[in-house]
Amino acid sequence: MRANIEIKDVSKHYGKTVVVDQLNFKIMPGEIFALLGLNGAGKTTTLKMMLGLTIPTQGEIRYFNKSFHENRNYILPRIGSVIEHPGFYDHLTVYENFKLITNIVGLHEEDSIFDLLRLVNLDFKLYDKVKTLNLQEKQKLAIARALLNNPLILLLDEPFNGLDVKSVNEMRNILMRLANERKVSIIIASHVLSEIEKIASRIAVIHHGKIIQIFDQAYLKGNSMSRTVIKADDMKLLYQRLKEAGYKEFLLKEQYIYLNEAIQLDELSQKLDLNNLNIIECYKKAITLEDYFVELVGGEMI
Amino acid sequence: MMNLLVNEWIKFRASKTVVLTLLTSICIPLLVAFVVVILNASTSHDVITVDDIMGMNLRFLLKTIGLIFYPYLAADIIAREYYYDTLKFQLTIPISREHFYFAKVAFVTLVTLIFGTIHFVLALVSTKVLLRTTLDFSSTISYWILFLKGNFLMLPFSYFALTLTVIFRKKFIPMSISITMFLTGILFSRQMFSHLLPWTMPTRLIFVDRMQNVNFSISYTYLTLYLFAIISFFTGYKHLMEDEI
Q1: Chain A contact set for B15 (CB, 8 A)
Q2: ipTM here
Q3: H or E element that contains A79
Q4: Rounded CA gap, A146 and A101, in Å?
Q5: Residues A31, A201: contact at Cβ < 8 Å?
Q6: Is the separation of the CB atoms in A199 and A32 below 8 Å?
Q7: To the nearest whole angstrom, how far is the Cα of A243 from the nearest Cα of chain B?
Q8: What are the pLDDT digits (tens) for A16-32?
Q9: Is the pTM of this model over 0.90?
Q10: Are A177 and A200 a contacting pair, CB within 8 Å?
Q11: CA torsion, points A190, A193, A194, A195, in degrees to nearest 10?
Q12: Residue A258: which of A293, A283, A289, A222 has the closest Cα?
């Protein structure tokens, strides 16, 4: 199958500062791809480059097997986006804000606008001024606006910001339906790891502008993602004994040591010198996306 | 392009700026009328002519609306896109940056000319009421053209404010710079080299040249002004084309 989006060696430099460094990934139709990263990791810059708001220093962005640089006017009408803040003219009504877009893209506005607002449960706000809406409603409105041109690709920067649990649930269902039924390719840059874990088919962790790992849901649920969590009365001694026993990769988090492999207590007690060391807790844990993300971008490494 | 202008109108008509602009347009002819009534009351032999009233209106227009308000209007039209963070989405619809910029400049020009005309109509009405006289068609047209020319002369300052807003993304800094430049212009308006400074033009026109039979023929000043407009226009354009949004 042909990829909807292809990012090839894309970098962005501001002087000597490298904001995005040699990104490479492909996104297929119907795929929900998440970009995870700390603040300033380069997620928003990546999305801005993908929308032509920022020009890449090097590399190529392709949509539908066409160069974005050479086919902007063909590609952009097929993309819906929410970048950073849900920007609306506060002094205009919801309808007027949408009409400003339909005037340009040439849609039969009335029906499309009403249907989209009904989709995000904001149809009753059609003639309200945007300044009377709260952040959550504005965020939902921004997502509805991104869908106005029936996009084949959705680029969403922090789409769950400011949404309550019910709205997050609604948004998740909408996005999953778009991906499954209409085969829309969706890229989500977000901090809300719990949601990403539920929704994304593939996840890329971006750190200091570089993608450090791309993995899918199966990988996250696989055996390799289990950890052994240990707590002892003397954590320093535990750390020392683990090193002596040949364990190299582990992480200290909230007074627990996370070993990068799943082992039983019996096995541990055989390998470890337990003299003067009292193990309080030891169990196997399937790690969450949040745990794994912290490991990747650098938790409190010992 | 037409759709973009319609969009600009939708944004503009609901803003507070439109009320402010209308109020200013209405207030100035009223103020002039008020001054004329006082003049007539205090100096019995004063003979106020149509030229006097229209000239006062035009000077007020250039001094107040033209110098401060039109640049503010231009700055506001661009600044709100940054303030509401609406520029990004518009560029991805997609509206090209060229069209976005040209639409803004065209809209500023249109609004300036429309409000100049409103101001002219009100000035004409006040003249009629005060002097109980009617102007013939050709005089009316020549006064109207005069008002439009006056407004055209103010456009470079609007473009300058627009360009500064594209650069600074806020209207406070452009307005501060514009006002400082006008004040500096007043200081230098009687100097020989004042023809070269666009900012001295309004003061020269009002106080030094005395509008020279309201003749707006091309002189060094106007050439400087048009050059100033062209430089402002292209600086703003170039900046927006290369700007990281």
Answers
A1: 91
A2: 0.81
A3: strand A79-82
A4: 10
A5: yes
A6: yes
A7: 49
A8: 889 899 999 999 999 99
A9: no
A10: no
A11: 20
A12: A283
